[in-house]
Each structure stands twice: as C-alpha cells, then as structure tokens.
Structure prediction request, 206 residues.
Amino acid sequence: MDPLDRRRPLSELLIEISDDPDPEVTIGEIVHRLGRRSFGALLFIFAAPNWLPLPPGSSTFLAAPLILLAPQIALGIRGPWLPRFLDERKLRRTDLAGALRKLIPTLERIEKVSRPRLVFLFGPVGDRLIGLTVTLLSLVLLLPIFLGNMAPAAAIAAFGLALIQRDGILALIGYAVAGVSVGLLVIGWTVAVAFFRHVAQAVGLV
Prediction:
C-alpha cells in the first residue's frame, strides 16, 4: 500500500518520521516513507520551514530539493527522483523533528477543513502548471533577498498541500500568494535599482 494513503493525513506521517529512534535520517528515507505520491508532501516539507527562524543559508539548502522536484511535476513524472548525493544527504532527526513539530499543529488545522474540491485545477494540465509555478518560485528562494523567501515558501507549501488533498482552494491560495511574491520581487528590484542609481549619482559615477 502506498504509505501516503489519503486516509492517512500528512501530519500523522510527519509525526512518525519525527518519533523514529534513529538519530539520523536521509532525504531518500523521507521520500521512501512518504511514498510515490510524495511530491506534494516534499514540497511542503522543504518550503514550510522557511517560515521558522533558521540559520543563514538555510533557504538555499531547502530550495535545492525543490528545484529538482518541481520540474519533475511539470514534466508529469509519476514518482520523485533525487540524485544520489542528495538522496543520501543525512539530517539530524532532532533538527528535523524540531522544525516539523512547529509546523504540525498548523498542518493539522488545515487538514481538518481541507477536502477534494475544484478538482478541475489538477490532472495532467493542472499538476504541470503547479510544477512550473513552483519551479519559478524555488528559483526565487535562492535569491539573497531579506525576508524575500517567505511569500514564495508559503505559496509552495500551499501547492504541496493542494496536491495531497486535491483541494483547489489551496491551489488558488498558492497562485494568489505566488502573484504576491512576483509583485514583491518587482518592487524589491525597482527599489534596489533606484538606490544604487542614487548612490552612483552621489559619488559621480553616472
């Protein structure tokens, strides 16, 4: 049976992963534990922690699996594939469990109200569109923008849960937050360009 059976909420699976006595866990083990329908779960796992206090550079580390996974969704690949170096990457379970424990209560509340609806937003075309959108958002997570990773991370997490639950409302929320992310990126870029132009003019470079 697929471990990610829709009768088993993602929160329950994450609790099991957190409570495992093994002190370390590889990313490949997480993928195997979640099962072949784990794309949505993995998007949530690697995106949602960006909302937590993390050491500098964590968003780049978290974005790496997303950049590999999201194009696979866009291409319609049925099961996630990761290169060996990432598949065998070990994480301390205490660190993983600490992050997951902070996310699980919110996840449980979402699961209580989420259900399959607006399912026309999924399928061969809808899933690929989500994959393409998440690919672009994952690239944004790599940019060194202060607090610039929060909106795209929220959108990716929403898309991940939408794929699991087949909940079109969550997908629409993901698209809306993705739009906000683009807007913030454009504003940030405009402000940065204006600032550096002003500095350049002040020192006589232009």
